[in-house]
UniProtKB/TrEMBL annotation:
Organism per entry: Hungatella hathewayi
SUPFAM superfamilies documented for this protein: Nucleotide-diphospho-sugar transferases (SSF53448)
InterPro entries: Glyco_trans_2-like, Nucleotide-diphossugar_trans
Protein name: Glycosyltransferase
Domain of life: Bacteria
């Protein structure tokens, strides 16, 4: 059994993923038995041939088309034989041995799912811990100006002390670590979400079993771009996912 498995879903961002994997290999303790799965939703094996040859603990899967974020990660579910599993975005970079620190934290504090401190390339905190999604929160995120700043801060738990652990209703899905048996217990991601809200849905399912905890003991870098704010096609996908989420879990206005 592996100590840790890691899944990363690719979509025409091979160079970014290679950089992420290089950082994982550079900083992760060599005594930690791990396996990295790359699920390629839009490229070819040739793009990853060099790094596949370089790292024997990496496996490549190509579904032949873009099956979406959650479905891509779910491809690994039958293959996982590990104590813990990490869901990692392509635009993540490690700057220290985050996995060892997170696993130590989870074992010590008896935590079954956690999210680390996530920062941008300049070391500024990204507020990736959030309250459960409401219709009001989704609306004010897109409105210009500072009128709704207090509401935005409430949604991203900015009133919490990010120097100490705390429970998180909704952990943004760029970097999540959880017990593999817990991920299998909730059947991974709901594949009805092609993109967006699948992380909120996963957190909702997990929260019915065990708290999700923020861990301040390690930081990872996230080169985050809000694609749906710039692209109308992605906006409509986001809207469709929101409707699906509220149909499943019930509409919360505020």
């Amino acid at each position: 059994m592996d100590d840790l498995t890691i899944s990363i879903v690719a979509y025409h961002n091979g160079e970014m993923i290679i950089n992420a994997i290089e950082s994982i290999e550079q900083y992760t303790d060599k005594n930690l038995k791990k396996r990295i799965f790359v699920i390629d939703n839009g490229g070819t094996p040739e793009e990853f041939s060099d790094i596949l040859d370089k790292y024997p603990d990496m496996e490549y899967r190509n579904p032949g088309k873009n099956i979406g974020f959650g479905s891509g990660h779910n491809l690994t579910l039958p293959l996982l034989d590990s104590q813990y599993h990490a869901i990692v975005n392509p635009d993540i970079m490690l700057i220290e041995d985050s996995f060892s620190k997170l696993l130590d934290f989870m074992k010590r504090e008896r935590v079954r799912m956690c999210i680390p401190k996530i920062v941008d390339e300049n070391g500024n905190l990204q507020y990736s811990c959030r309250n459960e999604v409401t219709l009001c929160d989704m609306a004010v995120r897109r409105l210009p100006g500072r009128v709704f700043d207090q509401r935005r801060k409430r949604h991203t738990l900015q009133d919490h002390d990010y120097k100490t652990p705390f429970p998180v209703p909704f952990a943004q899905g760029s970097f999540l670590v959880m017990e593999t048996k817990l991920l299998k217990c909730v059947n991974g991601f709901d594949e009805r979400y092609f993109m967006y809200m699948e992380d909120a849905d996963l957190c909702k399912k997990v929260s019915e079993i065990t708290p999700i905890i923020y861990c301040p003991e390690t930081s990872v870098v996230h080169k985050w771009e809000k694609g749906s704010h710039k692209n109308m096609r992605l906006f409509w996908i986001h809207l469709e996912s929101m409707i699906r989420y509220y149909k499943k879990w019930g509409l919360k206005l505020r």
